Amino acid sequence: MNGDIFGLEINIWLDALVRLGLAVALMTVVVMALIYLERKVIARFQQRLGPTRTGPAGILQSPADALKLLGKEDLRPKNADPWVFELAPYFVFIPIFLVFVAIPFAFDWQIRVLELGLLYVLAVSSINIVGWVMAGWGSDNRYAMLGALRAAAQGISYELPLVLALVAVAMVVSLPGDVRGSLNLVEIVAEQGHIPYIVWQPLAFAIFYIAMLAELNRTPFDIPVGESEVVGGPFVEYSGIRWSMFFLGEYTALLLLSLRGAAVFLGGWAWPLGEEVADQNAALGLLYQFTLTAAKAGVLIFTIFWVRATMPRLRVDQLMAFSWKVLLPLTFAQIAANGLVLVYGWPDVVLLAASGGGLVLLAVIIDRAVRRPTPRPGLPSGGLEGEAVR
Amino acid sequence: MVANTPEQEFETRELLINMGPQHPSTHGVFRMVLGVDGEVVTDVVPYIGYMHRGAEKLCETMDFRQGVGYMDRTEYLANFNAELSYVLAVERLAGIEVPERAQWIRMILCELNRLSSHFMFTGAFGTDVGVFGTAFVYSFREREVILDLFEEITGDRLMYAYFRPGGLAWEVPENFETRVHEVLLSARHGIREMDSLLTENEIFLARTKGVGAISAADAVDWGMSGPSLRASGVPLDLRRDDPYLYYPQVDFDVITGEAGDVFDRYHVRLREMRESVRIIEQCMEHLSDGPILPERLPRMLRTPPGEIYERTEAPRGEYGIYLVSRGGNRPYRLKVRSACFSNLQALRDMTIGHYVADAVVILGSIDIVLCEVDR
């Protein structure tokens, strides 16, 4: 049994090895670029310069940091659980890399086409919570444990809206031959050649985006690692290479979730005119499709950086309430609406109307929650005019 | 081994979390031990004293003019206000008349210092609430402009030692007035930016409203003062209620809050900054040429025996100097009444029952300077 890369027939194991090697190499490079970009972008938001010293405009800062981290001592606290502590980074790192397998970058450019690609991606990417909890528990540090418990609670709460928002889209994917519904990421992307699903499912996209921020532990949902509260959360005790694995895992997750969002909601490589350009000229089309994917993921990543530069952090109870009381019911409503459309064969405009209405509802709920009057402390009935006030 | 009863097996204990003295958000070397039940704080035990340097005792070995430097080091974010309390106490005890120009310049510098101190607060508070550095950097940019002016005037960015019993150390630079106007322009801009970055942010509101509320009666009982007290609705401002310098001659509002929660403590400070800008503008109109030190100031400053308590409205509240003299050129006893020390006492009342994340925000909203608490 043979696979082929670039038209070359090679052994299947070698093929798998090459593909995975490519994935790891590409991810590492892209992640280093992302870290550099984040530092630069946030520096611009904050009227700073960001890294400037290492290489032209500081572009070598990330490689330099990586080298520095590799050279650092790998410390383990005396009372830490050795196995749990040392294995935790792998539990964060490996599942995220496995997600890479099913992400489509351009037409016929992915590591593997999986019929249940979306399901696979969702299933694999939620394993990393285990790594977080292991890190927090194994470190024998109370900040770490608090952070890990927060991470677990948050991961579970936001995994549901994230998955269900994607399910809402997967339900209404229209395939040739009047069939609807697909979990194949390639098909989902290919069907968005004319109109991306963000148009039909704005509510699902909004929920996906919010849940994505939470899944990535990004501001305003960065409570598991909140620097000013739990000082880095589960990673407090990590140093050197293990810490850099967490870091790498985090940024890889950022990239892969953005790619997933770009593929499912923004039309991936297909919209606009992805296939048409490829029909005209194969090489140019490939380049164009890659650019489309990268640009859409890039926009999502940029907005995540932007949010990080401007938003405060939510509190843990607000975070949970928002997920269970607001996002989840709205996601169910979205799925129910989609189901009705599928059963009764209503036109797609109904999808847009239902989802758009839901989006407005979400905005209203958030607005009302924020602007409700402040509870006042118990003031003494007589007041204290004349006593404290001269 | 005796078998455990179900109650014993599921015994729950509260987790103690030690915050500080090295923790990013304890604003210096403050330590608090939080007892937490899940995420809810059940007990707070603050530990202070890490920064105790004996500033009060040291002042007793110095002559009255040298003591000014130690005031800078107690309240390092509002140095002019701290110096002012001290020199006012010495002046009143020694019976020194201060020239008009020196008084106006003192007022301008104190209000500018209030601005820079409150900018520091908004920046640090933004970080406490979880804005990744942006509020901090924006605030520090505005603070930097003010500190530049202070450096031009005093030659130092942090330890000014510019006020003297009797007036000022030396004349302000010639371009003082234009520079102050420039600084005010940027400060107004900075206040507006803080408003749009924090005050109008939904998550900021969600995190601060209704958190760490303290009633007016409790605030008074704890001896709180300054913006933290006014946030609870007690309109006590020493600039108006126990005037010093020429504050009766300028027009400003005493800002008060309603709920006494974290948001009010933040918002009172922000609104107070606008009042400071107003005060400085009025002072600039009054500023006229003249001496900055009295004509006959003895080389060695001596006070008659006696004791005095002089208090001013520093950015964090009532900064008081209790000075005992037995004659001679140095204080017999000097006691600093620190605003932060009293305000910090209410931390436990404010925090219990809130979440761990709120503990950080509440501590931030008190705006402590550990050097002043521990002295």
Tell me the structural class of chain B: alpha+beta
Largest sheet of chain A: 2 strands, antiparallel
* Strands of chain B, total number: 8
Question: What distance separates the N and C termini of chain A?
Answer: 92 Å
Q: What class would the helix/strand composition of chain A place it in?
A: mainly alpha
What does this protein look like?
The complex is a heterodimer of chains A (about 400) and B (about 375). Chain A has about 400 residues and is mainly α. Chain A has two domains: about 1-70; about 75-370, no CATH class. Helix content of chain A is about 65%, strand content about 5%. Chain A has a two-stranded antiparallel ribbon with strand order 1-2. In chain A, strands 3-4 form a two-stranded antiparallel ribbon. The longest helix of chain A has about 35 residues, at about 10-45. Chain B is of the alpha+beta class and about 375 residues long. In chain B, the strands form three sheets. In chain B, strands 1-2-3 form a three-stranded antiparallel sheet. In chain B, a hairpin with a 2-residue loop joins β6 (about 305-315) and β7. In chain B, α3 packs antiparallel against α4 (about 80-95), α5 (about 100-130) packs antiparallel against α6 and α5 runs antiparallel to α15. Chain B is globular, with a radius of gyration of 22 Å. The chains are: A mainly alpha (about 400), B alpha+beta (about 375). At the A-B interface, α6, α12, α13 and α14 of A face β1, α5, α6, α8 and α9 of B.
